[in-house]
Amino acid sequence: MHLKLPPDLDLAEAHAVAERVEAELLRAPGIDAVQTHLEPLERPVAARPAGGRDADEDDEQRRIRAIVADDTGGRPCELRLLRSDAGLVVFLTISVGASTSLTAAHELAGRLEEDIRRGAGHIADVVVHTEP
């Protein structure tokens, strides 16, 4: 499990947080091991104020919606674009069948991430959330 924590924490503090998370997860039935990987949080990303979209952002939304339609046959449940110092961050929520296996849903999310990034060097990150 990846844990993203404030970058100014020292390793001892970050490790203590990880141990608390691991201990809580181990209390759940059927979980007998948890391994965490610590990463520093990136600087906060500020959302563009409402109404601040430009033609490039509209074009990017159309491009992403077309990719979702090609890959899933449907439309995104939610699509948000945020600008960061590193580039554009895409937050995408899609609906998949409730009986879809976790593996298949994860593979679809990965394919969408790859397809959205392909040829778009200005995209810093793509986060795909699947809903049943």
Q: Total number of β-strand segments?
A: 5
Q: How many individual helices?
A: 3
Oligomer: single chain
Helix residue percentage: 25-40%
* Overall mean pLDDT: 87
CATH class of the largest domain: Alpha Beta
Name some characteristics of this structure:
single chain, 132 residues, Alpha-Beta Plaits, 2 domains, 3 helices, 5 strands, flat
Characterise the protein shown here.
By secondary structure, the chain is of the alpha/beta class. It has 2 domains: 39 residues, no CATH class; 77 residues, Cation efflux protein, cytoplasmic domain (Alpha-Beta Plaits), CATH 3.30.70.1350. Helix content is 38%, strand content 25%. It is built from 3 helices and 5 strands; from the N terminus they run βαβαββαβ. The strands form 2 sheets. It has a 3-stranded mixed beta sheet, with helices on one face. The chain has a two-stranded parallel sheet with strand order 1-2. The longest helix has 18 residues. It is flat, with a radius of gyration of 18 Å. InterPro entries: Cation_efflux_CTD, Cation_efflux_CTD_sf. This is Cation efflux protein cytoplasmic domain-containing protein. It comes from Baekduia soli.
Secondary-structure map:
Blueprint: E1 2-5, H1 11-26, E2 37-40, H2 55-72, E3 78-84, E4 87-95, H3 102-117, E5 123-131
Parallel strand pairs: 1-2, 4-5
Antiparallel strand pairs: 3-4
